[in-house]
Amino acid sequence: MKLLVCVKQVPDLESRFKPDPSGQWYSETDLAFRINEYDDYAVEQAVRLREQLGDAAELTVLSVGPDRVVEVLKKALAMGCDRAVHVQDPAPHLKDPWQIASIIAAYARSQQYDLIFTGFQSQDRGSAQIGPTIAELLGYACTTTLVGFSFADGVVTATRELEGGLKGVVKMKLPALVTCQLGLNVPRYPTLPNIMKAKKKELETVPVANLLQEETRIATESFYAPEKKGGGMVLEGDVTELVNRVYAILKEKTPALRQ
After folding, report:
1. Does domain 2-210 have CATH number 3.40.50.620?
2. Rounded to an integer, what distance in angstroms lies between the CA atom of residue 22 and that of residue 93?
3. What is the rounded distance in angstroms from the CA atom of residue 78 to the CA atom of residue 63?
4. Origin, by domain of life (predicted)?
5. Domain residue spans in the chain?
6. Angle subtended by helix axes 37-53 and 70-79, to nearest 10
7. Per-residue pLDDT tens for 197-238?
8. Alpha helices in the chain (DSSP H)
9. What pairs with residue 11 in β-bridges?
């Protein structure tokens, strides 16, 4: 059984962002990068299934991006993936979700994977379109926002998070694709022995031009921080005092109350 898990490298959200010289994206200077949070759950679930199936399965991890994404591929290998594929693209942010999905689908089609795992969405772009679009391009069954997963007799049983705290259960035959959500599992930390073993695992590099030839369909017009607005005011004291102070402030700022 051939398994694929797709991961993305994103900037640490605690970083301080500023536009790059082009004004179309953020500058990577002084930014720390990490694996996308939702992809961590996807990797963990894929590794658990790999362990369940034993030698009957092979698990590949794939990422699209510049040379720095090799770090998240190495982490996934240390977590238990068998091999890695780096689709080398120096500027993936210039491609729309359709193109990124097309790149992944082109590689997946050539390998005929039985089950594909992705994160629910990326933390930087947040479109939540990549997984379902890959499934559509491949003609795979698909279900999203998983918080529960099991596999037996060629059938995936997925528990989905719905609106209003409700959950739904979906059963799918292979081939299929699932997107993973917070709460699905607890991702493991790579151990030192597994980190050392990961260095000997296969890491294939594929130029993005081998998988996608079409031109970019969309372009970012600008990237900028929102304008600063006036701050709020915190009032402390007993209720009577607060009422009087609030009324005084409103009277000062609202012409109708001054009449």
Report:
1. yes
2. 13
3. 15
4. Bacteria
5. 2-210
6. 40
7. 999 999 999 999 888 877 767 777 777 777 777 677 788 888
8. 37-53, 70-79, 97-111, 130-138, 192-198, 239-253, 255-258
9. 33
